[in-house]
Design brief:
With 263 residues, the chain is an alpha/beta fold. The protein has a single domain, classed as 3-Layer(aba) Sandwich (Ribosomal Protein L4, Chain: A). It contains 9 helices and 8 strands. The relative contact order is 0.18. The mean pLDDT is 91.
């Protein structure tokens, strides 16, 4: 017998019921979820290598033994400032790297289709288990239901002010405040290189069709909006940790169930 859940309007009032799709009964497999997320993360990596002559453009040679000096290669000459300085060796200033990275290294992990579908289905099912969502750190005291299903009118919310009101009426604003208080700023080199701020992940909004929802919620910290057809396991399990607080539109639940049916 399938489980029935409430469907809420934008005011937080239940207006109907639907049967929980079959995909939400998938067994929870954190091992496959982690494997899939890591594979997705490696696809953003860029191969890098080093110039084969890096650190080797020098006339340095070893002087041999019997001089009371270490047997590292030294720059030839007598009068110029660098004469006699150690060079070329890995332990010298400006020397070569001992084991430099190579662009030929295979850094992209692959995942077969059956595993990828199983990981996504398991991550979807984890959003319907309250204990897993709480374990991830989300605030659910005011959330009326897990999983939280909202009418398709949510897809048309395109103003930030209205979006904030919707989050408050649905009991999600407490989790947004948790995200706001989690911001950590860094200084120095990390800040200069684009890693100056760390922020937690808040609720995820899954819609069937983007009619302005992405624009309306984009300025609220921690909120992400994604179409059910584009949903991937990293959206549902950021950092490999499943159980993200997820808001589904009514049509999005049907779409994701049809997408994963039989997997």
């Amino acid at each position: 017998m399938s489980k029935t859940i409430n469907v809420y309007d934008l005011n937080g009032d239940p207006i109907g019921k639907i049967n929980l799709p079959e995909v939400f009964t998938t067994k929870f497999r954190p091992d496959i979820i982690k494997k899939s997320v890591v594979a997705l993360q490696t696809h953003r990596l860029q191969p890098q290598g080093r110039n084969l002559m890096a650190g080797k453009r020098t006339t340095a040679i070893g002087f041999g033994v019997g001089r009371g000096l270490s047997r590292v290669p030294r720059v030839k000459g007598e009068r110029h400032p660098q004469a006699g300085n150690a060079a070329f060796a890995p332990n010298t200033v400006g020397g070569r790297i001992t084991h430099p990275p190579t662009a030929k290294k295979n850094i992209h992990k692959r995942l077969n289709k059956k595993e990828a579908c199983s990981a996504l289905a398991s991550a979807v099912a984890a959003t319907a288990k309250k204990e897993i969502v709480i374990r991830r750190g989300h605030k659910l005291e005011q959330v009326p239901s897990i999983p939280l299903v909202v009418t398709d009118s949510l897809e048309s919310v395109s103003e930030t002010k209205k979006a904030m009101n919707v989050l408050k009426t649905l009991g999600l604003w407490q989790d947004v405040e948790r995200v706001m208080s989690s911001v950590k700023r860094r200084s120095g080199q990390a800040s200069c290189r684009g890693r100056g701020k760390r922020i937690a992940k808040g609720p995820l909004l899954v819609c069937n069709d983007d009619k302005g929802i992405a624009y309306g919620f984009k300025n609220i910290p921690g909120i992400d909006a994604v179409k059910a057809s584009d949903l991937n396991v990293e959206d549902l399990a950021p950092g490999t940790h499943a159980g993200r607080l997820t808001v589904w539109t009514e049509s999005a639940m049907k779409t994701i169930n049809d997408r994963l049916k039989g997997d």
